[in-house]
Amino acid sequence: MVKIGIPLRYSHLEDGRNILYLGEKVRRVFQKAGAFIIPIVQVQDVDYADTKYNELNELTDKEKEEIDKYLDMVDGVILPGGFKITKYDEYLLERCIERDIPTLGICLGMQLMSNYKRKFKVEENTSPINHKQDSDDILTHKIIVNKDSSLYEILEKDEIMVNSFHRFHVEENEYFNIMARSEDNYIEAIEMKNKKFIVGVQFHPEISYGFDDNSRKIIDRFIDICK
C-alpha cells in the first residue's frame, strides 16, 4: 500500500487549548484512494497555533533530521489547507523537492509552493467571483487549464469547474509553471517541471472527490505516481 505523509495542522479547541489535527475529509478521501496515512508531526517545542512566523526559531539540525526520518517512510506527501505557514512547512517542502518526493499542495499548500525560496506573501482577493464558498457540495467557478501542463494531461480538458475556499491569492514564482488560472486571472494550479509530481492546486479536490470526476482524476493520478 502506498504510504502518504501529511503534516498536521494547528488550531484551538473551544476551551482555548492548542491542538494538532488532520482534517477528516483529507484522511478519508486519501484512504479511499488507496493510501496508508502517516501523520508528520511538528518538531519544534512551540505552540504553532499561537506563535507568529517571525517569533519562530530556525530549525535545528536535530529537528531537520526528525523531518527527514518521516520522509524516509513515505512514498508521497500532501501539503493540506490551513491558515498559516511556519519554518517547519518551508523545510518540509524544500526536502520534498530536493528528494523528488511526489507532493500535492492543496490551497495553503499551493500557496506555500508559490512562495518557494522567497519571503511568504499573498494578496487578498478583490474579484467579484466567489472564491470563498459556503457549501462543500458545489463547484463555484471555472478555471482555464494550460494545455502544456500535467493538469491538462490528467484531465484532458482546458476548462473545468472547481470549488473555492480561499481569501488570498499568489503571484508567479520562477521555480513553478502556471497550469491554470481562474476567470479573474488568479493562479489556480502550478507545477515544478522535471520532477515526478510537485503540484499545487488552489482548490480542494479532496472535498469534491466524491462527486466530481476531475477531482478524482487529480488525486488518483497522484496516488498512482506515488506507487
Quick structural gist:
This protein has 227 residues and is of the alpha/beta class.
Describe the structure.
Strand 12 (187-191) and strand 13 form a beta hairpin. The chain has one domain (2-226): Class I glutamine amidotransferase (GATase) domain (Rossmann fold, 3-Layer(aba) Sandwich). It is 28% helix and 25% strand. The chain starts with a strand and ends with a helix. A nine-stranded mixed beta sheet has the order 4-1-5-6-13-12-11-8-9, with helices on both faces. Strands 2-3 form a two-stranded antiparallel sheet. With 227 residues, it is of the alpha/beta class. Helix 2 crosses helix 3 (87-98). It contains seven helices and 13 strands.
What characteristics describe this protein?
two-stranded antiparallel ribbon; alpha/beta; 7 helices; 227 residues; nine-stranded mixed β-sheet
Topology readout:
Elements: E1 2-7, E2 9-12, E3 18-21, H1 24-32, E4 35-40, H2 61-72, E5 76-79, H3 87-98, E6 103-106, H4 108-114, E7 123-124, E8 141-145, H5 150-155, E9 159-162, E10 168-169, E11 177-182, E12 187-191, E13 198-201, H6 205-208, H7 213-226
Parallel strand pairs: 1-4, 1-5, 5-6, 6-13
Antiparallel strand pairs: 2-3, 7-10, 8-9, 8-11, 11-12, 12-13
Helix pairs in contact: 2-3
